[in-house]
Design goal:
The structure holds two protein chains of two kinds. By secondary structure, chain A is of the alpha/beta class. Chain A folds into two domains: 5-82 and 164-258, 3-Layer(aba) Sandwich (Rossmann fold), CATH 3.40.50.300; 92-161, no CATH class. Chain A contains nine helices and twelve strands. In chain A, the strands form three sheets. Chain A has a six-stranded mixed β-sheet, with helices on both faces. Chain A is globular and about 70 Å long. Chain B has one domain: ABC transporter involved in vitamin B12 uptake, BtuC. Chain B has a two-stranded antiparallel sheet. A two-stranded antiparallel sheet of chain B has the order 2-3. In chain B, helix 8 (202-208) packs across helix 14 (320-346). Classes of the chains: A alpha/beta, B mainly alpha. The interface between A and B is large, with 49 and 49 residues. Chain B: Its main location: membrane. Chain B: It is found in: Cell membrane.
């Protein structure tokens, strides 16, 4: 499948009062590809995806969707474009069953009367194509395990047939087995030709499923790496800023002087 | 570090393959019943197993309330054999309407996880608005009723606005409303202090009119049973058509028979007295409409979502503010409507209508009926069951000639018992892995 740029961020900046959360950030997201977004705490990962998801409108810069400039000011704008976001927490309503959660905000209905049967059928089909196993689609989400909840949350993002899926720390707080299930699901999303933005703290997860890694540091781009050809240490160095130390600065200065 | 990467990768590669078969029947289109799955077995035996599992797991549903009602009926009937007489049952049917309609509004608010303390005052304002317009200013009776109900809607919407938009806790907003609106009520009633309902006015008929033709009660029972059975059958047929698990025929039969017994027994008893009360018909209509709205429409789904997890609802694109404002509006509207019933029962609007224990009875009814105080869990029908419990106790104690202080104490104890059952069953549900 040819990889095309679905979503491109050009020079995004975002301020919260006196805090400059993002400065001049660029990001390109390709279809059929998993791009990992990594960075230290406070690097701006969550802020960046929230700007894409329409939770926080951007202050400066531009967003391009399939080559044409768009504005995303509300969560609805992002959903309409085909951007689905799975948040680390707060994604599901514990009291509602799996079907209700999957279709929340996007219910199958005649006029405004719910069509439970269509929804249940589509839910079963979706869960089956993703090889998701849960005890029943009619039990409250509260009684599912952490991994099952995360998988349901991701499946929920697919209901509206999105082109870009943003996963915010999908494996945080999951056990080994459950993490494996979620990563497996991420790969299946890629196989379906979706663009996946994966935020993670866990470099092992990133190396397991991502194609490219975009590093944010202190609200700025700090390199985009190809996972296949980049070592773990290089990425860690970009995250922690280890490459930016006295030695490298002197090196850069002497290089510049030599060039002049 | 790279060791862990390898391990993760190793487990990642090995696990998904085993995970699928371990979790359920291996892929493919067939949905064989996995012993671990909670999908109910087909047939009546499966239904019974499911029921037993639910009770053991603490999902008691309406069971405690229904048992409580039976116990109340047995106790009072043994103490005074006129408790279950046609006249007494008919009275209960009429008396529950006003507070029951108000309790329906409270169920909406409780589903959001909020509370509305102002319903008693709003009921008083509703009755006062109607009385002043209709009696003092000679406005058309129907128009006055509509204006009173719309006034309740606006008052509730105002509470919702302060809660949802301004962010004041609902407890405080409606507490302020509780005081403020009872002030408005007293001011509206002016110096007279009470306005009697004129003969053959709309409000007089609300609780005074009975369909005396016995065909009315039996007809309503028949229509209700047929509609119920038809709904179950159509649903089961559509689910079978879509190859989804459906209710077994035997369960539909049992449900329909139970429904028919209750409906026709009720109709029979009512016909022994003065016939089918209009008040009961209106109350049931409110319940059916509200139940449909809550369970079957997107709006109802939104209420549950906001009550369960407001942030998740907001991110799903639900207009949380609008849901909150509209729910408080509904509570206010139903409070004003219920207030008209109370005015009808007590023969007119007064300065103190809706004061005293009205508010507490209304909230107690919703909670006794099984609606959770913590939001997102409950049924509209709990308003009916809860108010039946409260009204039965009052009726029974009245028949025994007990003073109101005893009534307060017993109603309080029942409310406490209901909340204890709720909490204990919630704890059992937690240990059974379900909430």
């Amino acid at each position: 499948m040819a990889k095309e740029t679905v979503l491109a961020l050009r020079g995004i900046s975002k301020r919260f009062g006196a805090v400059q959360a993002l400065t001049d950030v660029d990001l390109e997201v390709l279809s059929g590809e998993v791009i990992a977004l990594v960075g230290d705490n406070g690097a701006g990962k969550s802020t960046l995806v929230k700007t894409i998801a329409g939770v926080h409108p951007i202050d400066e810069g531009g967003i391009e969707w399939e080559g044409r400039p768009v504005t995303i000011n509300r969560p609805h704008d992002a959903q309409d474009l085909g951007i689905a976001t799975v948040y680390q927490d707060l994604a599901l309503c514990d009291n509602l069953d799996v079907v209700a959660n999957l279709f929340l905000g996007n219910e199958a209905r005649h006029a405004s009367i719910l069509d439970e049967i269509t929804m249940e059928k589509r839910a079963m089909e979706l869960l089956e194509t993703l090889s998701i196993r849960i005890p029943s689609v009619r039990i409250p989400v509260a009684s599912l395990s952490g991994g099952q909840r995360q998988v349901v949350a991701i499946a929920r993002a697919l209901i509206g047939d999105p082109k870009v899926v943003i996963l915010d720390e999908p494996t945080a707080a999951l056990g080994v087995e459950q993490t494996a299930q979620v990563l497996d699901l991420v790969e299946r999303l890629r196989e379906r030709g979706l663009a996946v933005i994966l935020i993670s703290h866990n470099m092992a997860d990133v190396q397991a499923v991502a194609d490219r890694v975009a590093v944010l540091r202190l609200g700025r781009n700090n390199g985009v790496f190809d996972v296949a050809t980049t070592s773990h240490e290089e990425v860690i160095a970009a995250i922690t800023g280890a490459s930016d130390n006295a030695v490298t600065r002197r090196q850069a200065r002497t290089d510049k002087e030599a060039a002049l | 570090m790279s060791d862990t990467v390898d391990k993760e990768r190793g487990s990642e590669a090995a696990n998904p393959k085993d995970a699928a078969p371990a979790d359920g029947s291996a892929g493919g289109g067939d949905r064989a019943v996995d012993p671990r799955l909670l999908v109910r077995e087909q047939g009546f035996a499966g239904y019974l197993t499911e029921f037993k599992r639910k009770v053991r797991g603490g999902e008691l549903g309406s069971l405690p309330v229904v048992l409580g009602l039976i116990i109340i009926a047995v106790i009072f009937q043994s103490l005074n054999d006129s408790f279950l007489s046609a006249g007494s049952v008919s009275d209960i049917g009429v008396y529950i309407a006003g507070t029951g309609i108000m309790a329906t509004g409270i169920v909406f608010v409780l589903l959001l996880g909020e509370i509305d303390l102002s319903v008693g005052s709003v009921a008083g304002v509703g009755a006062a608005v109607w009385a002043v317009l209709s009696v003092t200013h000679n406005v058309n009776d129907w128009l006055a009723v509509v204006i009173a109900i719309v006034a309740g809607l606006c008052i509730g919407g105002l509470h919702g606005f302060f809660f949802a938009r301004v962010g004041v806790p609902a407890f405080v907003v409606t507490l302020a409303g509780f005081l403020g609106w009872s002030g408005l009520q007293i001011w509206l009633m002016g110096t007279e202090g009470s306005i009697n309902t004129p003969d053959s006015s709309v409000v007089e008929d609300l609780t005074g009119y009975y369909f005396e033709d016995i065909a009315a009660a039996y007809g309503l029972a028949l229509v209700a049973v047929l509609a119920y059975a038809a709904a179950l059958l159509v649903d089961a047929k559509r689910r079978r058509g879509a190859r989804l698990p459906s209710r077994p025929m035997s369960e539909i039969l049992v449900r329909t028979v139970v429904m028919a017994v209750v409906a026709f027994a009720g109709a029979y008893v009512l016909n022994q007295s003065r016939g089918l009360p209009l008040a009961l018909v209106l109350f049931l209509a409110v319940l059916v409409i509200a139940d449909f709205a809550v369970r079957r429409t997107t709006y109802g789904r939104q209420i549950f979502a906001v009550g369960g997890n407001a942030e998740a609802a907001r991110r799903a694109g639900i207009n949380v503010e609008w849901v909150r404002i509209s729910v408080f509006g509904i509570a206010g509207m139903l409070a004003a409507f219920g207030g008209l019933f109370i005015a009808s029962l007590s023969g007119g609007a007064t300065k103190s209508l809706g004061a005293g224990n009205t508010l507490m009875n209304v909230i107690a009814a919703a909670v006794i009926g099984g609606t959770s105080l913590f939001g997102g869990r409950g049924k509209i029908w709990s308003a009916l069951l809860g108010i039946l419990v409260i009204q039965s106790i009052q009726q029974g104690l009245n028949l025994l000639g007990m003073a109101s202080e005893i009534q307060y104490m017993i109603t309080g104890a029942v409310l406490l018992a209901a909340v204890v059952i709720d909490s204990v069953s919630r704890r059992t549900q937690k240990t059974a892995g379900r909430t």
